[in-house]
Amino acid sequence: QVQLVESGGGLVQAGGSLRLSCAASGRTDSTYAMGWFRQAPGKEREFVAAISWSGADTGYTDSVKGRFTISRDNTKKTLSLQMNSLRPEDTAVYYCTASTRTTYARPNKDQYDYWGQGTQVTVSS
Fold it and tell me: 57, exposed or middle or buried, with CB in 10 Å at 0-12, 13-18, 19+?
């Protein structure tokens, strides 16, 4: 089993920045790609960003390209999401996720096996 714990969420004004972190523990040697998804009230959980095991391959949903940066530190077993130029539409619960199925940065939710409990990000206008 793998445990994922997110932190760093909060309330920020539009145009501001936040940095989300995810700490992994347990059998992390069984996981490869990692990613961030988000879920706004009344909406389905959607892909935000993903990163391959090596960190060389990353992917982003179009609405966050140029504003968000995903990174990982395999030595420290952490995943991060730097979010700049935040918009009210970025408001959601953000979830960290890890895959045992792929080493590549995939946007498909069914490629991921472990999920954190989520951290709330609220962007005020």
Answer: middle
